Amino acid sequence: MADHHFATAQPASRARRRQSPAHGPAGPPEEAQGVDLGRLVGHLGYLVRRAQIWIFQDFIRRLAEVDIRPAQYSVLLVIEANDGLSQSALSQTLGIERARLVRLLDSLEARKFVQRRRSRSDRRSQLLSLTAQGRSALARIKALADEHERHLAQKLGSGRRKTLLRLLSVFARG
Hints:
The chain has a single domain, classed as Arc Repressor Mutant, subunit A. Helix 3 (70-81) packs across helix 6 (132-156). A hairpin with a 7-residue loop joins strand 2 and strand 3 (126-130). The protein has helices spanning 12-18, 44-62, 70-81, 87-94, 98-110, 132-156, 158-172, and strands spanning 85-86, 114-118, 126-130. It has seven helices and three strands, in the order H-H-H-E-H-H-E-E-H-H. A three-stranded antiparallel β-sheet has the order 1-3-2. The protein is mainly α.
């Protein structure tokens, strides 16, 4: 399964606002229930964004015990699959602006999950790999992410989840 959709997490200040109970997976606040959305219900962008909010909130809640955000999870998975990947290749692959990726990697490095080393062929380039602690943590993180995916399958139904993955993968390929 492709986890590219996790890489587009918003800055922390916006993420905190999204997590408020008024906008949680339980649905809109009581005063918003019954509000006619008009043509919005026919706009793919609106519905995909609402789905993303629900999915991110569920992911964050299920992975709270390991304090991993969706973008961090994506970064860890891609580094695991591509040991020695450069920061710039990671940035391009996941669509994370370089400055934001540097901050994200700083936080993962501080937790001793990721290590950076200079490329021998290009001293300006940083190569990434997981540490032993990062690999160990990622095993637990993956188990919790699998619980999240099971929850999504339960909400959608297994067949519809597979169909949605197939349809959305068109956008992940660029």
